[in-house]
Design goal:
This protein has about 200 residues and is of the alpha/beta class. Helix content is about 55%, strand content about 15%. It has helices at about 15-25, 30-40, 45-55, 65-75, 75-105, 135-145, 150-160, 165-170, 180-195, and strands spanning about 1-10, 25-30, 110-115, 130-135, 175. α2 crosses α5 (about 75-105). The protein has a single domain, classed as Rossmann fold. The chain is globular.
Length: about 200
């Protein structure tokens, strides 16, 4: 089984690339969605998050309110690291279980989409790493359109990630997503066809 580690900064188009790869036949594991499972009430990570960040991060039904938590962690690098030390191990455990299941099913290609792939050590699990990149001006437009986040909030999220150049230097394949969706689809299709 080939494991593709897919990364890139906020607003670069990772989700769109994951969607295209799914259409082409890959199994895609989105680490953000797996991480959200670790936030659910009753999990070890949920308890640790509440004890570290307080009950103010809970919504009315006892679930973690990720927007409230995000405001805390994206404005304070120390708090962000505290959260990552809780969530990353839980996410890794759940993801490795999913990969084991796909291996047992005989799956040919699995894409593991991880925004902080290098920082969390997922590059060591992947056979090949693809990074999706885009100019900062394009990223800001996309994020504002998608989530209504302000330019300053978007820049704070970008600053909390590994620098673009470091991702580019460490990745096996760099995909520039600065044109049309059709262009992106063509790039991904060609890469998919080149997989042995």
């Amino acid at each position: 089984m080939l494991i593709i580690g897919l990364t890139g900064g906020i607003g670069t188009g990772k989700s769109e690339v994951s969607h295209i790869l799914r259409e082409l036949g890959a199994v895609v594991i989105e680490s953000d969605k797996v991480a959200h499972q670790s936030y659910e009430p009753g999990t070890k990570a949920h308890g640790l998050i509440v004890s570290r960040f307080g009950e103010d991060v809970l919504d009315g039904s006892g679930f973690i309110d990720r927007k409230s938590l995000g405001k805390i962690v994206f404005s304070d690098p120390v708090r962000r690291l505290e959260l990552e030390k809780i969530v990353w191990p839980a996410t890794r455990e759940l993801t490795l279980a999913l990969l084991k299941k796909e291996t047992e099913c005989g799956t040919r290609v699995v894409v593991v989409e991880v925004p902080k792939l290098f920082e969390s050590g997922w590059d060591k699990v992947a056979d090949v790493v693809w990074t999706i990149e885009a100019p900062q001006s394009v990223v800001i437009q996309r994020v504002e359109r998608r989530s209504g986040m302000s330019e300053s909030d978007t820049k704070a999220r970008v600053a909390a990630q590994l620098a673009r150049q470091e991702r580019v230097d460490r990745a096996d394949i760099v995909i520039e997503n600065d044109a049309t969706l059709e262009d992106l689809r063509n790039q991904i299709s060609k890469l998919w066809e080149s997989i042995p």
